[in-house]
Design a protein that fits this description.
Helix 13 links the parallel strand 12 and strand 13. The chain folds into two domains: about 170 residues, Glycogen Phosphorylase B (Rossmann fold); about 180 residues, Rossmann fold (3-Layer(aba) Sandwich), CATH 3.40.50. It is globular, with a radius of gyration of 21 Å. Helices cover about 40% and strands about 15% of the residues. The two termini are about 25 Å apart. By secondary structure, it is of the alpha/beta class.
């Protein structure tokens, strides 16, 4: 069972170091930017381990100092070089708190070992981010590295804090047995002024229904790297008995992705591919539904983002997706093409009823009430 502990007090005068494995555009990165923009610390160091500049463009807090380190080798020497790089700029500042984001990736587990054993940080906070619980069982080598890392944290005199955004992440017995130290569940928070701002387009007409002569507009934000499969989506759409317009948005969504292009060619609808989006909210608003057919998420940010602008979602039952929907969307019974097709048909038929408008409005009010950003910020600052 996940342990919920009372939050301690927080000292604004100290600096904190965030160590992130990614700076690309994505739900987790947007969430990190929201977090850092609202933090009240004298100095916030953000170390990014790739070349992407998305976070640079959205972080506005003047206390945040971004340091980029693009050497991303999955080896002991690569991790060692990161460690010395980390120390090179925090030695003079004497930061006491380190926050590791994306540490579950195999490329970062060795860095985590070194941070625990050799760095002067008194407190190390581990953010078990999306897909982290899924990664535990991805490969034998991941399990071995994770076992060693948790064993080191178990015997280390440093204060180790575990933070997750989903109540299901700490469920595996292996994790519960090995984790030492406080465990906190902090649900993601969102700045809903974006969903209410006139800077974003509104539906014209708002919450519009359609009839059988119009295609349903679907949005599928995801990562489209070659190793990630999206067969459930494309197989379901290949069999769909209705016309549709599908917008794909995400890293790897380009003509160079041969695997993706092959899957797209097998379906009959109109498909638009975008590798990035100037405003993901514009994509949400221009769609009737947002799709999430994942099996490895813990707290899918895109569900809350989409619902905040009154676009309902169709998604698999992963992590906390059922609680996020709150009955104001469509949940797949199973992670199969047939279940996806059944949900899509139900959602399509629902569009022609007055209840669709009510679902849109209820989805928006539900997430705005349940996931405001101020709750998340207060919880994080009291811990870090």
């Amino acid at each position: 069972m996940t342990i919920h502990r009372p939050f301690p007090t927080h000292d604004k005068s100290k600096s904190v170091v965030f160590f992130s494995s990614s700076g690309a555009q994505g739900g987790a990165e947007r969430q990190l930017a929201n977090l850092l923009n609202h933090f009240k610390y004298s100095t916030i160091y953000l170390v990014i381990l790739d070349h992407h500049k998305f976070l640079d463009s959205v972080i506005t807090n003047p206390s945040v100092r971004i340091i980029r380190f693009t050497r991303h080798r999955i080896s002991f020497f690569g991790s060692l070089s990161r460690f010395f790089f980390l120390l090179s700029f925090i030695a003079a500042d004497k930061s006491e708190s380190l926050v590791l984001i994306g540490w579950m990736a195999r490329a970062n587990l060795l860095t985590y070992f070194i941070c625990i054993l050799l760095t002067p940080f008194k407190k190390i906070s581990l953010i078990w981010n999306h897909r982290s619980s899924f990664l535990l069982f991805q490969s034998f080598s991941s399990q071995v590295l994770l076992f060693v890392s948790l064993l080191i944290s178990f015997v280390s005199p440093k204060k180790i804090i575990h933070i997750t955004n989903s109540s299901s992440v700490f469920d595996p017995r292996f994790v519960r047995f090995m984790i030492r130290g406080p465990k906190y569940v902090i649900y993601n928070g969102f700045e809903f002024k974006d969903s209410l701002s006139f800077a974003y387009p509104v539906r014209n007409p708002p919450f519009s229904t359609i009839d059988s002569s119009h295609p349903i507009r679907l949005l599928y934000p995801a990562r489209f790297s070659p190793e990630k499969g999206h067969s459930i989506l494309f197989e379901a759409l290949r069999l769909a008995p209705f016309s549709f317009e599908l917008t794909l948005v995400g890293t790897g969504c380009s003509c160079q992705n041969a695997s993706l292009m092959k899957q797209i060619s097998a379906i009959h609808g109109n498909v638009v591919c975008k590798e990035s989006s100037k405003s993901i909210f514009e994509d949400y608003i221009s769609s009737h539904y947002t799709l999430l057919f994942s099996y490895s998420e813990s707290f899918p940010n895109i569900l809350v983002e989409s619902m905040s602008v009154a676009t309902p979602c169709i998604c698999t039952n992963v992590g906390d997706s059922q609680a996020i929907l709150g009955g104001h969307g469509f949940l797949l019974d199973e992670h199969t093409p047939n279940a996806a097709l059944s949900a899509l048909i139900s959602a399509y038929n629902f569009l022609s009823t007055p209840a669709y408008s009510e679902m849109c409005a209820n989805a928006k009010s539900h997430v705005i009430k349940k996931y405001p950003i101020d709750k998340m910020i207060a919880s994080f600052q009291s811990i870090l």
